[in-house]
Amino acid sequence: MNQPILNLLELQGVDVIDVYDATNGGKIVEIVCHKPDPCPCGHGRWHRHGRLAPRQVSHQWVGVHWVHLRWTPQRWRCTACRRTVVDRPGQLRPWQRLTPVAQAAALLALQRGSFRGTAAMLGVGPGVLRRLVDRVVPLETPRWWDVPGDLVLSVDEHSFRGTDLCITLAMQAPVRRLITVLTDDRIRTWDAWWQTVPASVRARVRVGTCDLKASYRKGFERWGSDQLRVVADPFHVVHDANRRLDDIRRLEQQETGHAIPRWPLVKAQERLTPRQAAALTRIRQQFPALGALHALKESLRDFWAQPTRADAEQHLSRWLINADACDHAEGRVWAGLIRRWKPTLLAHWDQPERWTNGYLEGLHTKMKQLKRVSYGFRNRDRYRRKMLLGFLPSSGIPQLLT
């Protein structure tokens, strides 16, 4: 076999004897390994000590065929120090089922597939791939801070299984990158992660975006520098407003016995169809308190459309006055929440760019797809590694094997 084909198959350091069809499909490349490098002792020479049973490992895909390597291992012994070694191709470990090239192909397939589906395609057991992920993929992007410039971090929780939540951490600037998925959403886990970050890196964090969860905000304030500004995510603020509005709608339905449509209340008012707009008008006439809360929600949405910080602060002050004077008690409770988060809401105008959790929500969408494809996870650390693998660039996969 000529050298270009050997380079294509990444078979450097071996001699190819024959290529033939395998009984279970694919191709088998019969190889002979070269004599080992000189013994580290430097005083002896290798003596052929014995021959072992033939070995076969999966190597890579060529076309639609899976290429397997087959060789007869030789045992060599140093004549001076009596050290014994067994020759094998490349960096293959004893009893390894996949070569490093096959492992890289398996990790690429696992980025979008499940363990069982990828194992059936590669012709190995799912346990081989699970052990590969556990051994190779880290629980955090290595040295994610090795980029110049100020850092912008985002944090949010997502569901690992049911109501069991995990924390997702991502970097939005200078580059967009998933940092890690923490084990759970406890405060001590959030603080323990900050303790692993070098102090010089914590000093570079200038912006932290989060939802209306006080533990995230306090974590940024406790571990970040004096220059760090916490920014509340607009999506979660409006989502909280819609949740409050929907809870009051259900209470009104129970009290009055009249069906109140949900969509005209939670949908953006400028996007309502004529039928939904007519339904909203009827709701405001029949349920004035619910209509007042809806007006507060729409006014809060207009808060992010203000051109300057002074306009935004004036708009938010008027909103708080209207919320305190609302006919429904929920308005005053809502005003208390917005008043506590007022500095983080106004922090949007303190940055040259309006930072949100949009990138992180996109990561969560992809994580949900990976969980559905994999039919769920039971091992929490394996889930974290699998999610991180799904967001690694294809060019970064081979580096994981070194």
Structure description:
This protein has 402 residues and is of the alpha/beta class. The protein has three domains: 2-96, no CATH class; 151-233 and 357-380, Nucleotidyltransferase, domain 5; 237-349, no CATH class. The chain is 44% helix and 20% strand. The protein contains 16 helices and twelve strands. The strands form three sheets. The protein has a five-stranded mixed beta sheet, with helices on both faces. Helix 5 (187-196) runs parallel beside helix 7.
Keywords:
402 residues; alpha/beta; Nucleotidyltransferase, domain 5; 4-stranded mixed β-sheet; 16 helices; Transposase_DDE; Transpos_ISL3
In short:
This protein has 402 residues and is of the alpha/beta class.
Q: Layout of SSEs?
A:
Elements: H1 3-8, E1 14-21, E2 27-33, E3 46-51, E4 55-62, E5 65-71, E6 74-78, E7 84-86, H2 100-110, H3 115-122, H4 126-136, E8 151-161, E9 164-173, E10 177-181, H5 187-196, H6 199-202, E11 205-210, H7 214-223, E12 229-232, H8 234-256, H9 263-266, H10 274-286, H11 288-302, H12 309-324, H13 329-340, H14 342-346, H15 358-373, H16 380-390
Parallel strand pairs: 2-5, 8-11, 11-12
Antiparallel strand pairs: 1-2, 3-6, 4-5, 6-7, 8-9, 9-10
Provide the β-strand percentage band.
Answer: 15-25%
User: What number of domains?
Assistant: 3
Number of helices: 16
Strand order of the largest sheet: 10-9-8-11-12
Low-confidence stretches: none
Mean pLDDT: 88
Largest sheet: 5 strands, mixed
Number of strands: 12
**What distance lies between the first and last C-alpha atoms, to the nearest angstrom?**
28 Å
**Broad structural category:** alpha/beta
Helix proportion range: 40-55%
Tell the overall outline: elongated
Order of helices and strands: HEEEEEEEHHHEEEHHEHEHHHHHHHHH
Specify Rg, calculated over alpha carbons. Answer: 30 Å
Protein name: ISL3 family transposase
Pfam family, one: DDE_Tnp_ISL3
Domain Transposase IS204/IS1001/IS1096/IS1165 DDE: 153-386
InterPro entries: Transpos_ISL3, Transposase_DDE
